[in-house]
Every structure is written in structure tokens, then in C-alpha cells.
Automatic annotation (TrEMBL):
The keyword RNA-binding does not apply. PANTHER family: MOLYBDATE-BINDING PERIPLASMIC PROTEIN, TUNGSTATE_MOLYBDATE_CHROMATE-BINDING PROTEIN MODA. Belongs to the bacterial solute-binding protein ModA family. Residues 1-20 form the signal peptide. The lineage of its organism: Bacteria, Pseudomonadati, Pseudomonadota, Betaproteobacteria, Burkholderiales. Gene3D superfamilies: Periplasmic binding protein-like II. It comes from the Bacteria. CDD domains: PBP2_AvModA (cd13539). This is Molybdate ABC transporter substrate-binding protein. Keywords: Metal-binding, Signal.
Length: 248
């Protein structure tokens, strides 16, 4: 009897491997660190592998509309997945909100950014980095913040644009820009700012950064793609997401 059960266990294990699949996922750059952890947990728990590509949401939209074979998109906004659904590039009613992002004004240098963000008004810096607002929702939110604070025109000559939020973070972390608007997830570890100085931007100063995921048409028959969207709503993924400063 013990031998029979052991054999059955091996059979189930082989069956599980046979049904494991790989899902191609386009991931907004701000979600790089948490998604890497989620992908590892997803593979350990389901056997499915997530093949990740990171970049600007706007660029992914262009690639998808031109036939890029991504199966799932984790966007930095909620408008791009909705648009893809309307255009028939994504499966209808497959959208989920996997996170709500937080914008932060950050400098790699301690003491540069004050707790209220008044450095934007004092102008005690040469360059301010933001993500391209035409491609990256975090960049669009940064512009809204500056407009609402009444400093957008004055700061325009000092702006340097990253193609996406990852490049924007690189500008600031290397000191090429003294400060910049980045995603809280990029500078947070264990619920604290890892280094430098930061101002967590009040949500009232910009439109919510609601980040939606959607099942794209190349993934409509993929068990791995559907499993990943389900996994993102699970407790393990949500715990990882919250640990990087996102809310729901």
C-alpha cells in the first residue's frame, strides 16, 4: 500500500510538470522588484514560470498593438489595459487592479529632500528627474504634483526625463539629478526608505496611480497566464506587494 501511494505521488508530480507552462509578462518598470519576488513564488507554488520584461507602459502598449506576443500586461495605470480591451487586444473583462502606486520625491543624499517637499519651491538643486509623462503614468503624476503646487513653469528648465521610472531612478541614484519623482517601491525596503531623503507625495496632489493587469489575446488559452492573474490576487502576492509600499 505504501509503495502504491508513493508511485501515485510520483505520477502526480510528473503530471504537474507536464502541465507547467511559461507565461510572457510585460511589467511596468515601477513594479520590477516586487514582481521578481512574486514570479519566484509563483513558480515555486504552481510550477508555471513567468518570463518578465520590464519597461514603460506606453512603450508596451505600442509593442502590443504591433503584435508583440506578450500574454499578460501589468500596467502602471488603469487606462492602458482598458484601451487594449476596447481595441480587442486584450480579453474582455479580464482586468484586475493589482496595486495602487505611491509617488515619492527622493534624493540619494540625506537632508536634500525635506518632509514637506518644500525643496521644490526653494529650488536648491540643479536637476529634477521625472519619467516621460507621455509614456509613464508616474511621470504624468509628477507633472500633476508640480502643477498643483504652482511650480511647474519655474521647474521646467531643470527637468530631466527618463524613458521610464527605472531610468528616472537611475538618474537620481547616480547623482546625475539631485532629486526626482520615483515610485516608493524603488526606495523602500521593509517598510522604510532605504537611503537618502524623501517626501511621500500626498495622494491628493495627483490622480490615483491605479495599476491594472490584463490578460492579452495571445494568453487567452494559456493556463499559466490565467493562473498568474489569479495568483496576483492571492495573499502571498499581496503581502509582497504591500511590503513595497503599494496599497489596494
Amino acid at each position: 500500500m505504501i509503495r502504491t501511494l508513493a508511485c501515485a505521488g510520483v505520477a502526480w508530480a510528473v503530471l504537474g510538470v507536464a502541465h507547467a507552462d511559461t507565461v510572457s509578462v510585460a511589467v511596468a518598470a515601477n513594479f520590477t522588484a516586487p514582481m521578481q519576488k512574486i514570479a519566484a513564488a509563483f513558480e515555486a507554488d504552481t510550477g508555471h514560470k513567468a518570463e518578465l520584461s520590464f519597461g514603460a507602459t506606453g512603450k508596451f502598449y505600442a509593442q502590443i498593438t504591433h503584435g508583440a506576443p506578450f500574454q499578460v500586461l501589468l500596467s502602471a495605470d488603469d487606462t492602458t489595459p482598458a484601451r487594449l480591451e476596447r481595441e480587442g487586444k486584450a480579453v474582455a473583462h479580464s482586468r484586475i487592479t493589482y496595486a495602487i502606486g505611491t509617488l515619492v520625491l527622493w534624493s540619494a543624499q540625506p537632508g536634500t529632500v525635506d518632509a514637506k517637499g518644500d525643496v521644490l519651491k526653494s529650488g536648491d538643486f540643479k536637476h529634477l528627474a521625472i519619467a516621460n509623462p507621455k509614456l509613464a503614468p508616474y511621470g504624468a503624476a509628477a507633472l500633476q504634483v508640480m502643477e498643483n503646487l504652482g511650480v511647474a513653469t519655474a521647474l521646467q528648465p531643470r527637468l530631466v526625463q527618463g524613458e521610464n521610472i527605472a531610468q528616472t531612478f537611475q538618474f537620481v541614484s547616480t547623482g546625475n539629478a539631485q532629486l526626482g519623482f520615483v515610485a516608493l517601491s524603488q526606495v523602500m525596503a521593509d517598510g522604510k526608505i532605504r537611503s537618502g531623503s524623501a517626501w511621500q507625495v500626498p495622494a491628493s496632489l495627483h490622480e490615483p496611480i491605479r495599476q491594472d493587469a490584463v490578460l492579452l489575446m495571445p494568453g487567452k488559452d494559456s493556463a499559466a497566464a490565467s493562473a498568474l492573474l489569479t495568483y496576483l490576487r492571492g495573499s502571498k502576492a499581496r503581502a509582497i506587494i504591500q511590503s513595497y509600499g503599494y496599497s489596494f
